[in-house]
Structure prediction request, 390 residues.
Amino acid sequence: MNDKHSQPDPELALPAAVRTRISPARSAAVAARVGIMLGVAVTICFLTGLISHWIQHPPGWFWWPAHPVWLYRVTQGAHVISGVVAIPLLMVKLWSVFPRLFARPLLGNPLRAVERGSIAVLVGAMLFQLVTGLFNTAQYYPWRFFFTTTHYAMAFVAIGALAVHLAVKLPVVRAALARPDAAAATPAERERAVVSRRVVLGSAIAAAAVAGLAVAGQTVTPLRRLAVLAPRSGQGPQGLPVNRTAGEAGVTESARDNAYRLTVTVGERTRAFSLAELAALPQTTATLPITCVEGWSAAADWSGVAVRDLLAAVGDYGGGDVEFRSLERGGLFNRSVLPETHVRAADSLVALRIGGAELDLDHGFPCRLITPNRPGVLQTKWLSAIEVRR
Prediction:
């Protein structure tokens, strides 16, 4: 049939073998709509990823509040969920546009060459980000580069390529969305269609929703039983997951040593506290979530000495950031720096107990840092020293 409406996009000079076999479901309408959903997911993932990175590696201008205590739990949960949701959307997007990658000319004028180049960079960067990010949630690193900095740098490559691609394709997207019957197909198109455009769009939305629910439970407690793909969903000593055990950190003996002391330095004054002396100080209890960069989070009742009270027991804290060091000698996160905003928060604790029970060794016994609205990697366990930075 020579019905002009049954032909694929006339602007594309596709090889005949490709042109005659393109499913009507691989249309600009499908690509545009899936692309919008993908763009929303990627934007959420990008922005929340920036927040997480800046909290861990703060630029001089960056400020992050201590309250509400659940804010980082929401932003990092949204980061992981949106990243997982983007995976099926990207697959459908690539499926819908794949035949048009063979359109002639392959490069053509400068604008088309830029568009082709942005597509190559965009697809490569997106696949890299989503695959490595998914592996990170499972703490699986089959590569030699440092994930955090590489993931952060590639995020800008991906979002930049996306911006160029959108700028070039905006007229096509607007035209596809403006068609009142964009989801309909002609009789000739229906003859060679295996699935309709509506089925493809519905399947993309359903797959994205299922993927999101499969991991959302590690952040959203009521959905925990649905989190079949979440690597950590609340199981562990004292009801909290553990990323790094005392055995892996090599601190089992030093943490249990009767001669253990926590050294606290404020200005020119230093004092060493035994576990009994820490327990004798005024105790504070706070309900705080511990939220890991991999996306999981779980709340608990923590008890211990407020950081500001512990500093006051040594000397006059006049402000400034405070460094916390672990008994762990190696590792990327054997120390952390607590900003002054969090130091002064009443619920920033050197925790000794969880739910009224002594800290489990894998949760940081004899004492650990637990503060509101901070990533778990910065909640230093097995504390050995605390020092005010001037």
Q: What stands out?
A: Residues 1-11 have pLDDT under 50 and may be disordered. The chain is about 45% helix and 15% strand. The domain at 246-388 is CATH 3.90.420.10 (Sulfite Oxidase; Chain A, domain 2).
